[in-house]
Amino acid sequence: MGGAAEREERVSLELSEEIVRSMEPGAVFRDYNCRISSIDFNKNSSNMVTASDDDSIRLYDVATATCLKTVNSKKYGVDLVCFTSHPTTVIYSSRNGWDDSLRLLSLHDNKYLRYFKGHHDRVVSLSLCSAGESFISGSLDRTVLLWDQRVEKCQGLLRVQGRPAAAYDDQGLVFAIAFGGYIRLFDSRMYHKGPFEIFSVGADLSEANVVKFSNDGRLMLLTTMDGHIHVLDSFRGTLVRPSPLLSSSRIIYLTITFSTLQLSTYSVKPVAEDSTLDATFSPDGIYVVSGSGDGSAHAWTVRSGKQVHSWMGGHGNEAPPVIKWAPGSPMFVTGSSELAFVIPDLSKLSAYANRK
């Protein structure tokens, strides 16, 4: 019992560069037959879910590093998956080439609770509001749809001029939509008025892959196909006064006015056209971990912009891994053709070694 208590005390310490450099794959699951396309954690439990190109959705208990259940979606396929507030209920997108609906699924009894129809091409971005029932989806049909989990029909539609990446902040007050070298911020309650801020990410006009907020909402990151991870301050800047045109069908046409607030840009190997460059903030927002077009993963510190550590691809896989940091934990998870829980190696930490 003494060793267990010591480990619990150690991993609860604040993240540092030493801890990040010590992190290595712990539990590894190699029973996937193909690429893992999405990972998400439930904030109200120790559950994690994955989606993969073998049309499976798998539910894990992170605390014990065990797979609890596998649910197959052979008819529709599966691409992106997100937890609702319930620990065994998810929303996921299809990837079968003929049905681009989203589905609300109970993993407990493998029962569909609701279908969300509105997109006409593959959904490439999916984000749930952790503070309510809302979620947002972006598609290659160049639309971003706003939804309520309790209603099958979309509650709002935004047209964009490229592949969209969308995300809610942690409080659900703001959501971001990125495409074409800009990030647009919307008030969730008045999105029909258009963006209240538009930030430029410089000369990077390549397709947006993912956009995410830090837990405290102060930072955003945007990844692009050219292999760039841009980190921006989400609060500072001049208030933008766009001139949106609002039609009766609630379609918004965006006007390009912007402020430039880029803090840092990290560069990795560009990704293939059919791949996605993923990245994640640590829970404290101090570190960013990203994938790369060569299958490796890299960590940077936001404060200095320097690279802290890198991890080579585990088995020669050149697709960028999906990466997600576990909420409130010194652990992140990577998914390629295998799933790895990356945790601190206590034997490499001086504070731990001195106590031996």
Automatic annotation (TrEMBL):
WD repeats: 29-70, 116-148, 281-310
CC per GO annotation: nucleus
Predominant location category: nucleus
Keywords noted in UniProt: Nucleus, Repeat, Transcription, Transcription regulation, Transcription termination, WD repeat
InterPro entries reported in the protein's UniProt record: Swd2/WDR82 (IPR037867), WD40/YVTN_repeat-like_dom_sf (IPR015943), WD40_PAC1 (IPR020472), WD40_repeat_dom_sf (IPR036322), WD40_rpt (IPR001680)
GO biological process terms, semicolon-separated: DNA-templated transcription termination
Location within or outside the cell: Nucleus
Pfam families xref list: WD40 (PF00400)
Family per similarity comment: Belongs to the WD repeat SWD2 family.
Name assigned to this protein: Uncharacterized protein
Organism annotation: Eruca vesicaria subsp. sativa (Garden rocket)
